[in-house]
Amino acid sequence: MKPRVLQLNPILIPAINDKLATLYDVHKLFEISAPDAWLREHGPSIDAVVTGGHTGVSRAMLEQLPNVKVVAVNGVGTDAVDLAYCRGRALPVTATLGALTEDVADLAIGLLIAACRNLCSGDRFVRDGQWERNPQPSAIPLARRFSGMAVGIVGMGRVGRAVSSRAAAFGCTIRYTDLRQMNDLPYSFVPHLVDLARVSDALVLCAAADKAEGIVNAAVLDALGPRGFLVNVARGRLVQESDLTAALVAGRIAGVGLDVFVDEPRVPLALRQSDRATLQAHRASATWETRTAMGEMVLDSLAQALAGERPAMSLTT
Q1: In angstroms, how far is CA 221 from the centroid of its own chain?
Q2: SS3 of residue 90 by DSSP
Q3: Residues 13-34 pLDDT 10s
Q4: Do the Cβ atoms of 153 and 163 come closer than 8 Å?
């Protein structure tokens, strides 16, 4: 009999779904009409859980899965998993750490360039036929050069380092803040976020910061100033969105590039209506290459745990 896997989120890569179906008896809870009743009946027979970073798995659900041997998160976020409870059960919780790094860093730089150079508003200007009606060069405001900017990185983990190397290739001056200074980096460490904002043309949020909230507030945005840009590819809740929208509308910052938001998929109207906001629908890892690599890591975690091994990507055991 195949091990039984409870899947809480769709996986978009057909090859990964095919492998799951070949190796395991997969039950897609998101397709079951009465999930609570199904769990009460079948929960004790489940051997593994596959979920996403946003969905996670609740403690209440885990208590209905007494024989589960691994929770494999198809992503890097574990905010929605009770890690302390899982540690108490010696239950491995795995994440696809490292698989997303290059794509997230690419998008961070893409968002920053797009914000600096007004790429989205320029695209609309052409598509809407405004160029024909307003062919004079002054019809489009001058943009901001990205090359050579002073870039402040918030969080120097995998993604922060990848963003830094890309920005450095554009001749940018790199400074960073984190919980501590890292001696293996050639960049200047600035202990306080307000001070980093004050000496930066752009702040790029890369911190995992599962417990941090609202660290980018009015004081940080005012320190960044009316020529400064903010990019967030980390966690939406790192930013006080009301402070951000107020600063953007008032022109107290120059622009933003955002892939994450506080209450997804609900995005403040002021951000959606602003020509100085470049927005994405939490898509930093959404490439075939990264999503395939993530799926393979999920498969590895399942195989290792169900073979009685400690999964290489376990965060709790």
Answers
A1: 21
A2: coil
A3: 999 999 999 999 999 999 999 9
A4: yes
Q: How far apart are CA 120 and CA 237, in angstroms?
A: 24
Task: Answer for the pair 130, 139: CB distance below 8 angstroms, yes or no.
Answer: yes
3-state SS of 215-230 is CECHHHHHHHCCCCEE
Would you call 235 a catalytic residue per the annotation? yes
In this structure, what are the phi and psi dihedrals at residue 125, rounded to the nearest 5 degrees?
A: -60, -40
Strands 93-94 and 150-154 turn out to be unpaired
Q: Give the Å distances, CA to CA, from 168 to 21, 110, 171, 222.
A: 44, 14, 5, 25
Active-site residue, from 63, 213, 264, 289 = 264
Q: Are 15 and 296 in contact (CB under 8 A)?
A: no
Query: How far is Cα 139 from Cα 157, in angstroms, rounded to an integer?
Result: 41
- Bridge partner residues of 74 (DSSP): 52
264 is catalytic: yes
pTM: 0.93
Q: Which of 235, 237, 276, 291 does the annotation list as catalytic? A: 235
Q: What are 196-207's pLDDT values in tens digits?
A: 999 999 999 999
Residue 257, beta-bridge partner list: 231, 278
